[in-house]
Fold this sequence. Notes:
This protein has 227 residues and is α/β, with parallel strands linked by helices. It contains nine helices and eight strands. The relative contact order is 0.16.
Amino acid sequence: MSKIPQNLQTIGAEIAQYSERYHRPAHSVRLLAVSKRHPADAIREAYDCGQRAFGENYAQEMLEKAEELSALEIEWHFIGPLQSNKTKDVAATAHWVHAIDRLKIARRLSEQRPSDLPALKVCLQVNVNDEASKSGVSVAELPELAAQVSELPGIKLRGLMAIPEATHDPVQQRANFAILAKAQADLNAAGYDLDTLSMGMSDDMEAAIAEGATMVRIGTAIFGARN
């Protein structure tokens, strides 16, 4: 018997608990179910439990699932690194793109977003710890990229995303997420209207919510080990 319904219930309760603990408004943190490498049937089961937002890392996989599940009102989030030759498919299928870290990708999404669709919601990925192995724009370079992306038609800059360095220290987890929260606050003080902080996964969700996450990305804790 699948554990997906129980897992969703457990994670929902944890989000509510952490939100109350850190004085966050009720329902201010959305759950993004990361469904990469899991079959469409698992997504359908989570959908039947009320989950609507699903995150995918690979363009072809998202396209195939979106076609198979086209009868469902799913909100598709592309959360992985995006190559130039995949932007057309993502621009036509996704509702959100979380990991924009350079102007070239944003431009291609802007140009390739079908005109009959609403603006594609996007987040800029920030490398909050300046890790050489991670994608993302630096905090210092963020204002310039935000200014450029915000002017593009067909896409709507909604916020920031980060995957901080892995640590089990809750103090360090919060410090990492605080960097992203401050970067967004600084942009908003400069005249932007950003409302999304995509940060936090299974191991650091509490710290992310404490520092202002509005969207947490949870995969294995919902769907189990990936194929």
